[in-house]
Amino acid sequence: MGFLSYFRSQKKRSASVAKERLQIIVARERSQTATGPDYLPMMKEELLDVIRKYVQVERDAVNIQLDREGDCEVLELNITLPEQHNPHQARE
Amino acid sequence: MGFLSYFRSQKKRSASVAKERLQIIVARERSQTATGPDYLPMMKEELLDVIRKYVQVERDAVNIQLDREGDCEVLELNITLPEQHNPHQARE
C-alpha cells in the first residue's frame, strides 16, 4: 500500500524521538470544471475535535499545512501525542 | 511535498472518470512500548460525519481500508463525490 510506505519512510527521520505520532491527511481532487466552496480549511478544527475524543492533543502539538497544486488540495495535520505509558520511566 | 505527489500519481488512474474525489487518511505511529486502545477503527464514522457537513456523501461512495504494518496503523477513506456543477448536463 503506497501511503503506508510513504508514512514509514517519514517515520525513520523522527525515530529517535520515540513519541507517538498521528497524521491526518484530507486530499481533495476537483474536476477542472467543478465549482464549490473551499471547505478543507474549515474542516481542520472539526477533525481535531474528533481526534480529541480519543487522545489528548495539546494545541502546540499540532502542525497544520494546506497545499494546493493544480486541481489537488491537501490538508495535512501532524500531531505529536504525549506518551501514555510508564509515566514514571525516566526520559533521556 | 511527498504526499501530494503520491496523491497525484493515484489520480491519473482515475482521470477518465472526471468525478470529484476526496481521500482522508489517518496514520498512527505508536512507539513500540506504547499501550492504549485502537481508536482508528472507531473514528471512521465520526470523520465521515465531518465530511458530510460540507458535501453530500452517498453510503456506497465510500471505500474504507485499515492497514497495519509493524507499529504503523493507517485508516484510509476514499470517497467519490457527485459532480455538483451543471446539474442538467447529460451523463454518459
Notes on the protein architecture:
By secondary structure, chain A is α+β, with helices and mostly antiparallel strands. Chain A has a domain at 20-31 and 38-83: Cell division topological specificity factor MinE (Cell Cycle, Chain A), CATH 3.30.1070. Chain A contains two helices and three strands. Chain A has helices spanning 2-13, 40-52, and strands at residues 20-29, 62-69, 72-81. Chain A has a three-stranded antiparallel beta sheet with strand order 1-3-2, with helices on one face. In chain A, a hairpin with a 2-residue loop joins strand 2 (62-69) and strand 3. Chain A starts with a helix and ends in an 11-residue tail after the last strand. Mean pLDDT of chain A is 78; it is low at 85-92. Chains A and B meet through helix 1, strand 1, helix 2, strand 2 and strand 3 of A and helix 1, strand 1, helix 2, strand 2 and strand 3 of B.
